[in-house]
């Protein structure tokens, strides 16, 4: 740990000249042992990293003989080698060991710490070097990606991933915005800004003409962002565009992306390639930015009261138009429902927690909405792996966590001393305010491992207590550093406001309600830290204007072998795991057996439940698992997904202990209504969030298409008849005598019969469904429904069309069935059309729809993962067990050799039988998974937003 003690010290004063000349930073050992280097405590091994595009087999990256600890996973090894090792591959200058990477970064930090007066003696510096090295080596935390990219290299020492720009109402400023944004994108980072200073299209120019308005200038910036690939890589730039709710062009801004979605639909239906990454998608505008509306408390009160709200001219501030607040808020919700944009930012809450209001308001955020501070500023991030602080007895080690935060926040502040920045203005502001963004990953795994449901009072209490402790210790360390090397330059002007915000954090901690020994113990340590923070800060001030954010932790989450990213819950209960020597397998999340043990289950019960989860992907009806424990295993996706308000409540629990905001998207089901979106946005304001974004399943048109669909679309586009011919469908009637079959079924306790008649050439031609008593309304409706489907089939409507429309339709009765191939149905129609697909559609078409028989699923798991059984021994020992050999492969029926899985998202799709709304990675072709407001590729570590 580090502490300040009396005595003389060597130090470098800041421009404020603050700092106690008798104070010095004494570093004590936390993780390391004197006389033994951290590298000597682990077993190292050499591995070959060969990363391929699993869809076509092409090699994306290859480096053989890299050196890593034996406990690092294959995935973490691959990502660090391909993403973070510097030097040309195949040359002696190329890094080939994790030791080289950690040394390159840590030694740079320690040298800067000595140079700028953070450490008194060389011994303190050496201990600090060993502590940081140990923590990085053992995946306790990680710096954000730019640190690994740039620190210790000949490149500019850029350490920040988050940037905020500014633009004024002049052409020179607008063109400079394009330029600065391009420079940031070129460096592999993202930026956000607020366009509200640009006058609206309803105002006049000094020349007498009408202004273009901010939305028109967004087109040029969007085109620029789409052209510049971040860091020379394959992913596009990440950016955020914000507009204030009182801007006269606010309605145009709200509807911008929703109208582009209409264009995508029209072009897709006309045969153009509108797939994500397709050749024609580039014609769609405004797709390279996340859009957000900045709402004020005044507007939200007008919304509550059903009143009018004034839109103000940018140049004079006068109200030029009144709008109905409820109507405008409904348009915001409607647009978000249609295309997930715009998100919402709550200006009143943001600036109420602002530590430096005398230096300017907070008007914008970075692309993922977690960093919010002054214009032309940046923030460097680091995240802790929360599972590293969970003891074997299930207690969270608050003391060790606090000591770790002290070490990390010190390093983060040191980095500003030597960092380079993309623009002079950003460099000046960052050095003056020294914004930091410490955060964490693996919260979802931690809650499950301790037996807490993500959407529960106990889970939120533990998350809030941990976040409060992190913030308290970070600011306490910041106050201690201010006593050594001085507070940030802007502190004197903002001292009163900064102290007020610290008191707000501390008061929120005092109001925490604890439910278990774990969260109670953590809050107790946090309370003591807040008291020390205020006492030391009152004397020294603080070194940093901001201390924390909750970032997506995409690539670095994989580097730390985290099961969950940022504040997110687990994606699903089954994972896709790469094996040493190549190949992969399906395993149940290793937090599941740990959670079952905490909940009091015996080893035999745990093994049976884990085996059930491995087969079904969920816990419903798992043998021996009590229904009251189901909620502990709820995930972001799957049969028991967390309700949207569960995500919002978790964000609200931790927001009072974060300097910035939270990168997170609230997932909503496809059946969610515009009113549901409106309520989520309203509750976000009521609960004190700073920002919120939603995503409704299947709301985006430009999602990845299957190869079959793409080929069909291409063929349609190429077939251009010279003359217009009117085609009419012809009914093909069934012969008097035709083959048929009858299937009895049960869905959620409701019994019924499905009679299907087919043509002699084995094509389905009619169905009859018996459900309910004869003469009942339900029976009559099903008779009419059966006739309409039968006539449609005879007129040539493909069965797969009906299946795609009716599968996953949700209404009662629903639940378990007596059909081994369709174990759970969301409705009777969902079951009927899945059964018809299994009986009458060829495997290739069913594969596109995600519908397989039980034997096909078993065969797929056996062929792709080595065994249909879950690797129980591997779960117990955290070591990959050798896949078992199928004793009787000849007894398998159809074996879907052409179905392959490349990520946990695709594995989840296999279990659910439906596609997930996630883009394909442009580097390796695997389907990405959500990570905060961005997407993350498990195959190569690429992200769709901030690193």
TrEMBL record:
The protein's required cofactor(s) are namely: adenosylcob(III)alamin
What SUPFAM superfamilies does the database record attribute to this sequence? Answer: PFL-like glycyl radical enzymes (SSF51998)
Q: Which organism is it from?
A: Saccharothrix carnea
Alphabetical list of Gene3D superfamilies matching this protein = 3.20.70.20
Family stated for the protein in its record:
Belongs to the ribonucleoside diphosphate reductase class-2 family.
Record's protein name: Vitamin B12-dependent ribonucleotide reductase
The entry's function note states: Catalyzes the reduction of ribonucleotides to deoxyribonucleotides. May function to provide a pool of deoxyribonucleotide precursors for DNA repair during oxygen limitation and/or for immediate growth after restoration of oxygen.
- Domain named Ribonucleotide reductase large subunit C-terminal: which ranges? 160-695
One GO molecular-function annotation for this sequence?
A: cobalamin binding
Q: Which reaction does it catalyse?
A: a 2'-deoxyribonucleoside 5'-diphosphate + [thioredoxin]-disulfide + H2O = a ribonucleoside 5'-diphosphate + [thioredoxin]-dithiol
The organism's lineage is: Bacteria, Bacillati, Actinomycetota, Actinomycetes, Pseudonocardiales
Q: Which GO terms describe its biological process?
A: DNA biosynthetic process
Q: What is its EC number?
A: 1.17.4.1
- Compositional bias per record (Basic and acidic residues), positions renumbered to this chain: 889-898
Q: Quick check: keyword Nucleotide-binding in the entry?
A: yes
Where are the annotated segments for Disordered?
1-21, 878-899
| EC top class, as a word | oxidoreductase
Q: Where is the composition biased (Polar residues)?
A: 1-15
Q: Which residue ranges does the record assign to the Ribonucleotide reductase class II vitamin B12-dependent N-terminal domain?
A: 49-139
């Amino acid at each position: 740990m580090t502490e300040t003690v009396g005595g003389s010290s060597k130090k470098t004063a800041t421009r404020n000249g603050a700092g106690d000349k008798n104070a010095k930073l004494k570093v004590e050992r936390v993780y390391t042992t004197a006389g033994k280097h951290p590298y000597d405590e682990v077993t190292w091994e050499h591995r070959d990293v060969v990363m391929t595009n699993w869809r076509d087999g092409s090699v994306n990256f290859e480096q053989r003989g890299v050196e890593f600890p034996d406990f690092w996973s294959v995935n973490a090894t691959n990502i660090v080698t391909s993403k973070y090792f510097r030097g040309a591959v195949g040359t002696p200058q190329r890094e080939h060991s994790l030791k080289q990477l950690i040394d390159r970064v840590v030694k740079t930090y320690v040298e800067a710490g000595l140079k700028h007066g953070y450490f008194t003696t060389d011994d303190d510096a050496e201990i600090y070097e060993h502590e940081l090295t140990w923590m990085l080596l053992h995946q306790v935390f990680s710096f954000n990606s730019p640190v690994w990219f740039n620190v210790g290299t000949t490149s500019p020492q850029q350490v920040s991933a988050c940037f905020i720009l500014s633009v004024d109402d002049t052409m020179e400023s607008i063109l400079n915005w394009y330029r600065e944004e391009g420079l940031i994108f070129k460096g592999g980072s993202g930026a956000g800004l607020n366009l509200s200073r640009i006058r609206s299209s309803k105002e006049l120019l000094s020349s007498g003409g009408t202004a273009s308005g901010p939305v028109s200038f967004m087109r040029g910036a969007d085109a620029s962002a789409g052209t510049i690939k971040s860091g020379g890589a394959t992913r596009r730039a990440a950016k955020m565009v914000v507009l204030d709710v009182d801007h006269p062009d606010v309605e145009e801004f709200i509807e911008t992306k929703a109208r582009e979605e209409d264009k995508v639909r029209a072009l897709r239906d006309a045969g153009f390639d509108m797939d994500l990454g397709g050749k024609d998608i580039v014609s769609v505008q405004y797709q390279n930015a996340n859009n957000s509306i900045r709402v004020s408390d005044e507007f939200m009160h007008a919304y509550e009261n059903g009143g009018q709200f004034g839109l103000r001219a940018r140049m004079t501030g006068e109200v030029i138009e009144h709008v109905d607040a409820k109507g405008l808020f409904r348009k915001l919700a409607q647009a978000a429902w249609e295309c997930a944009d715009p998100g919402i930012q709550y200006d009143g809450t943001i600036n109420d927690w602002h530590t430096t209001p005398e230096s300017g308001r907070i008007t914008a955020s970075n692309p993922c909405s977690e960093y919010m501070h002054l214009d032309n500023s940046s923030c460097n991030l680091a995240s802790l792996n929360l599972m590293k602080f969970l003891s074997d007895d299930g207690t969270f080690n608050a003391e060790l966590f606090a000591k770790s935060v002290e070490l990390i926040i010190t390093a983060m502040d040191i980095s500003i001393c030597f960092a380079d920045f993309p623009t002079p203005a950003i460099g000046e502001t960052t050095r003056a305010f020294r914004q930091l963004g410490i955060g964490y990953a693996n919260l979802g795994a931690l809650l499950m491992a301790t037996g807490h449901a993500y959407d529960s009072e106990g889970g939120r209490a533990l998350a809030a207590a941990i976040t409060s402790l992190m913030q308290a210790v970070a600011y306490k360390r910041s106050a201690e550093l201010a006593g050594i090397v001085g507070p940030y330059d802007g502190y004197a002007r903002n001292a009163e406001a900064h102290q007020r915000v610290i008191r707000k954090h501390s008061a929120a901690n005092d109001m925490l309600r604890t439910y278990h020994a774990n969260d109670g113990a953590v809050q107790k340590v946090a309370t003591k830290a807040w008291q020390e923070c205020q006492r030391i800060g009152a004397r020294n001030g603080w070194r940093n204007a901001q201390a924390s954010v909750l970032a997506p932790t995409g690539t670095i989450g994989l580097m730390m072998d985290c099961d969950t990213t940022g504040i997110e819950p687990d994606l699903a209960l089954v994972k896709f795991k790469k094996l040493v020597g190549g190949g992969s397998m399906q395993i149940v999340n290793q937090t599941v057996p740990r959670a079952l043990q905490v909940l009091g289950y015996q080893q035999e019960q745990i093994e049976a439940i884990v085996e059930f989860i491995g087969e079904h992907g969920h816990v419903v009806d798992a043998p021996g698992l009590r229904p009251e424990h189901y909620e502990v295993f709820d995930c972001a996706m799957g049969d028991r997904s967390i309700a949207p308000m569960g995500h919002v409540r978790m964000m609200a629990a931790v927001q009072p202990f974060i300097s910035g905001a939270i990168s997170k998207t609230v997932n909503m089901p496809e059946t969610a209504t515009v009113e549901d979106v409106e309520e989520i946005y309203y509750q976000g304001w009521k609960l004190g969030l700073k920002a919120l974004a939603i995503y409704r399943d299947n709301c985006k048109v430009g999602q990845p298409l299957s190869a079959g669909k793409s080929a069909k679309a291409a063929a349609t586009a190429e077939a251009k008849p010279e003359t217009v011919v009117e085609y009419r469908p012809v009914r093909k009637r069934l012969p008097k005598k035709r083959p048929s079959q009858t299937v009895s079924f049960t869905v959620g306790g409701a019994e019924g019969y499905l009679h299907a008649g087919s043509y002699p050439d084995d094509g389905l031609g009619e169905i009859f469904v018996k459900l309910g008593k004869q003469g009942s309304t339900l029976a009559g409706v099903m008779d009419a429904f059966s006739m309409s489907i039968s006539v449609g089939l005879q007129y040539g409507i493909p069965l797969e069309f009906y299946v795609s429309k009716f599968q996953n339709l949700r209404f009662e009765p629903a639940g378990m069935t007596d059909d081994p191939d369709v174990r759970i149905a969301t409705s009777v129609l969902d079951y009927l059309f899945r059964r018809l697909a299994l009986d009458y559609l060829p495997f290739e078409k069913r594969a596109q729809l995600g519908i397989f028989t039980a034997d096909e699923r078993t065969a797929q798991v056996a062929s792709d993962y080595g065994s249909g059984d879950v690797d129980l021994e591997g779960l117990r020992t955290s070591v990959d067990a050798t896949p078992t050999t199928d004793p009787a492969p000849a007894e398998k029926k159809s074996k879907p050799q052409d179905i392959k899985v490349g990520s946990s998202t695709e594995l989840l799709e296999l279990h659910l039988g439906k596609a997930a709304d996630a883009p394909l990675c442009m580097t390796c072709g695997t389907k990405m998974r959500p990570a905060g407001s961005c997407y993350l590729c498990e195959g190569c570590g690429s992200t769709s937003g901030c690193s």
